Amino acid sequence: MAELVLSALLPVLFEKLASTAFKNIARHNGIDAEIKKWQRSLTQIQGVLTDASRKEITSEPVKRWLNDLQHLAYDIDDVFDQLATEAMHREFIHESEGIGSKVRKLIPNCCTNFSRNTTLLNKLDNITVKLKDLVDEKAALGLRVLEEDQPRSKNKNRSLQTSLVNATSIVGRKAYKLSPRSSSMVKAGLKLPNLKT
């Protein structure tokens, strides 16, 4: 179950990580190196999701690992949303700087920014530690990338597919030969299939 949620959530996280806007936000906050580490770790984890989903049925530790990963993915998504919200807030403040500058001067800016940044940095550190633990635990649980998860070459072991039926394997009745359909086939000069009785 957790694998289904993760297989839907991880591509969304990768899409956010790859976006130019998010890269700019991360660079502005000085966390771009940490975000790249997350991306590498998440890529490693994504590779073993199929194996984990098979093993979660019989292994309680794998089930817990997937559950922890699911919660961590939600935490990462929350941090991404928080970063985007702060970026929009900064942009809004910058655009409306002339309107309420007198009111804003009354509120000490350093105190509000410090508490927000400290909370965010704590969340980032917490996620980094949890992600590293999950990557380490992945190896301890014996999770590996399965062959079917690897990209396949187009011609390798491809079975031939056809909609044609082998007429020699059709089992029918003698009455078919006497049916109106078969007599119209004979009149048209078409050969009747060799039917077994």
Automatic annotation (TrEMBL):
For this UniProt record, give its keywords in alphabetical order, as a comma-separated list: Nucleotide-binding, Plant defense, Repeat
Q: Per its UniProt record, what Pfam families does this chain match?
A: Rx_N (PF18052)
* GO BP term, example: defense response
Signal peptide: which range, if any?
Answer: none
Provide the Disease resistance N-terminal domain boundaries.
Answer: 12-96
MF terms (GO), sorted A to Z: nucleotide binding
**InterPro entries per the record?**
Rx_N
Q: What protein am I looking at?
A: Disease resistance N-terminal domain-containing protein
Say which species the protein is native to: Deinandra increscens subsp. villosa
